[in-house]
């Protein structure tokens, strides 16, 4: 059989120019400025005056072929047949003629897509796989995102925020979703439950031991069989042992919770990029619509919208007003869990008399 | 058929609300697709997902599936509850590399959709968090058929496992005036230099390249890639004073002071009495803020190039890490410049492949051995741009100071000579 196989063509990453709008191809590297005529629409102007209009729309991200074809139909009928996708999985249609913009928006909206997600909006939540497809998830990122975007859709369609809000969700503590202004991530609260009968067959024990960030796992004989043992006092319930050793079940219907983090910012604008910080935890992992998580996100967004200055991302805002004010304005509890004890934690402690009243 | 559908009361809740529903999409495949293979797969997928929602547990396990000749690019998924949901029992994902910048014609999207409909579930995502097109859900046999078909018309698999992963680059030069790079060329030069390392996992762990045309870092390269290439410039930024005046007239001085002048991280800006703008270019750190606000009036300079940072990653195992500057500035104009970049990436990957522990990201290795050992390993000289500040602790052995100082003076003299 093997010799019948077709050898792969190792072409790697394809050339994007062949799929690029001709106006963009022509003006590659020669753009002058852009404008933002309305939410969801960008106008880029080249040095020679050429224009390219972009309409951005949010979708369900996991596209069935019917939806994919609908998006293509809109691209053929109302645009020039050229699209791209943003890092947050929005679709963008590019046209060189302003007259095509409004009909395209109408067509997208008529099909249920959501035009917006530009500038100081709440952008599409970037998310990971979840129950639909990952082998280790504690929740269903797609579901969390759908339920949340239902509630935040107006903020996606408008530009009411002080600056853009990038949100992410991750369905385990590996956090495939990146840093976010607001991140909603699974947080386990109990050590793994070990199925000792399976460990020796399924797990490469030394590499599982090596995987634990706090050295809480050691080899052990259980019921006469080689297995692994967890020092539950040391265990931080991170779940890192679960992917290499599925019998170390970390997911739990009750004790796998959600936590919310704020202030992650990838951009270098103003301050240097920042990591997100814990603000809320113990949130029930409550499918199908996770209302408790959404309620907290909305509270944070409301405080940010009311209190931040123009151009402040969430991290800029909290840096200016201070964390005590953040907890006061959001009404979220500050607990002992907010005080870091991971490596380098002293950096996060206040060693000054800088106190706001 | 209708009576054979799994009940999905919880998932049905996700059809409510104004945002487009992925569940409705699955149901469209289940109810409207003529191919029984696809409608049956969608039905069982919905059934298993509903079961997950009810029990709050996942039911996929990994395995080994690959296409002929490759060791990577497929995420194998086998159902643990396949007896109840047999038609989606095998539900593998193919990770396919998109063009740099994620451009498509609708014709190409249709062609990909048609192939996927022939061999797969009909579900696809543009794109995963690493940047691949994710063709979600097919059987082991069809994995090969689908790959063979799309590989013939120009598409190749991305990485999965301990290998070079699919890259990402921003729209950049194609549409954005902030760009200081040819993102697509950098992306393709690097990724396609490492095709073997993409397809045949043999590294300590994953390695990601991401390219952002400017410090706005739309690709999250600093934190999400092992090797970040970010555009910048080293001459003066451009100021169109007429546009500055127009902006001040339109928005008011207070707005400009509160939103531009006082927001500059290095206090490099000043608004003059005649409503023109003064820039202290030597102290501008190219953060992009003022340009983001005053898009027409302010723009990057002409002497463009890249800053390179090494070692960004997410939580596992030692906690999140940002990349660290290892090259403050390099030109990327000539073929020679690109060769230098590629060589540097090769050196980095080779050094890490030799010195990284199993499952240790490049940034974690740097953290363990110290930046200086890494720099010496790959042959890069130290530079004060690599640190926020010099060392604070005196507990360090510093014999050899004179030679090190001499190196610095020699290097500076050489740079000066080269520049004149
Ligand atoms: C064990 C099974 C895992 C599965 C099924 C999985 C799945 C995924 C998927 C589907 C993506 C998006 C991929 C793409 O765009 O092609 C992704 C991205 C990512 N994964 Fe995983 N992952 C797994 C394990 C891990 C582990 C062990 C880590 C970290 C130590 C990790 C960290 C990440 C990160 C950081 C990203 C986002 C990368 C970026 O920003 O480019 N994943 N993962
Ligand atoms: S965040 Fe965790 S559970 Fe979710 S897709 Fe990534 S690895 Fe899987
Ligand atoms: S859950 Fe994390 S801390 Fe606990 S044993 Fe597993 S790897 Fe170690
Ligand atoms: S990173 Fe900079 S150059 Fe690239 S798209 Fe974003 S703003 Fe434009
Ligand atoms: S780019 Fe940033 S650092 Fe430079 S002048 Fe503008 S605001 Fe200041």
Account of the protein in words:
The complex is a heterodimer of chains A (357) and B (420). With 357 residues, chain A is α+β, with helices and mostly antiparallel strands. Chain A folds into 3 domains: 14-115, 2-Layer Sandwich (Alpha-Beta Plaits), CATH 3.30.70; 130-189 and 253-341, Sulfite Reductase Hemoprotein, domain 1 (2-Layer Sandwich); 193-235, Alpha-Beta Plaits. Chain A is 26% helix and 22% strand. Chain A contains 9 helices and 16 strands. In chain A, the strands form 4 sheets. In chain A, strands 1, 2, 3, 5, 6 and 7 form a 6-stranded antiparallel sheet that branches. In chain A, strands 8-9-10-15-16 form a 5-stranded mixed sheet, with helices on one face. Chain A has a two-stranded antiparallel sheet with strand order 11-14. Chain A is globular, with a radius of gyration of 24 Å. The termini of chain A are far apart. Chain B is α+β, with helices and mostly antiparallel strands. Chain B has 3 domains: 1-158, Alpha-Beta Plaits (2-Layer Sandwich); 168-232 and 307-393, Sulfite Reductase Hemoprotein, domain 1; 238-299, Alpha-Beta Plaits (2-Layer Sandwich). In chain B, 38% of the residues lie in helices and 14% in strands. Chain B contains 15 helices and 16 strands. In chain B, the strands form 5 sheets. Chain B has a 5-stranded mixed sheet with strand order 8-9-10-15-16. The longest helix of chain B has 21 residues, at 335-355. The N and C termini of chain B lie far apart (80 Å). Chains A and B meet through strand 1, strand 3, strand 4, helix 2 and strand 5 of A and helix 2, helix 3, strand 1, strand 5 and helix 4 of B. Bound molecules: protoporphyrin IX containing FE and iron/sulfur cluster (4 copies).
